[in-house]
Amino acid sequence: MLILASGSPRRRELLQLITPDFEVAPSEIDERAVSAPTPRALVAALAEAKARAAAARPGDVVLGCDTVVDLDGRVLGKPADRAGAEAMLRAYSGRWHYVHTGVCALKDGLAHGFVETSKVFFAPLEEDEIAAYAATGEPYDKAGAYAIQGGAARFVTRVEGCYFNVMGLPVSSLYQLLRRLDALG
């Protein structure tokens, strides 16, 4: 059985594009206890930690994932409050940033993983746009304070790489990994 070790409704929705045959068993880890020298290394480490923390039966493939936004080598996670969300959005205004998603498929105790990176460009934003988007409440449970598939779509003028990666699950790359692991039933 394929186990998604995430409570994210977006990841659940995106995994259904690959297969309807999986269970959801969110894992709980202290993400602050995991460190790494780069944002890419951090998401890889977090994805593996989440996969290993999820309960599994013999033969299960457990899928752990983590996504961060990388602005100038700094990790921007979920904002703590409105001021934090607005500061992140302001920082993206008129520039590129990176979105990294680490994926780890744990099978028989062996970790099989990758990190997908997408480059995202935001249009220049006015203060009233930033405030209006922050007021929607949408930024607060999102890495980097925005949902590309939501209201922030109007700010994103360009994506280089996997669009679904920016949502939190690189569908095509994950599909290829699950096929190699014979995890699609």
UniProtKB/TrEMBL annotation:
GO biological process: nucleotide metabolic process
Recorded catalytic activity of this chain's protein: dTTP + H2O = dTMP + diphosphate + H(+); UTP + H2O = UMP + diphosphate + H(+)
A Pfam family reported for this protein in Swiss-Prot or TrEMBL: Maf
Keywords: Cytoplasm, Hydrolase, Nucleotide metabolism
GO molecular function: nucleoside triphosphate diphosphatase activity
Cofactor field: a divalent metal cation
EC number(s) on file: 3.6.1.9
Active-site residue numbers: 66
Domain of life from the UniProt record: Bacteria
GO cellular component terms given for this protein: cytoplasm
Gene3D superfamilies in the cross-refs: 3.90.950.10
Location in or out of the cell: Cytoplasm
Site (Important for substrate specificity): 10, 67, 149
InterPro entries: ITPase-like_fam, Maf-like
Family recorded in the similarity comment: Belongs to the Maf family. YhdE subfamily.
PANTHER family noted in UniProt: BIFUNCTIONAL DTTP/UTP PYROPHOSPHATASE/METHYLTRANSFERASE PROTEIN-RELATED, BIFUNCTIONAL DTTP_UTP PYROPHOSPHATASE_METHYLTRANSFERASE PROTEIN-RELATED
Known function: Nucleoside triphosphate pyrophosphatase that hydrolyzes dTTP and UTP. May have a dual role in cell division arrest and in preventing the incorporation of modified nucleotides into cellular nucleic acids.
Protein name: dTTP/UTP pyrophosphatase
Gene that encodes the chain: maf
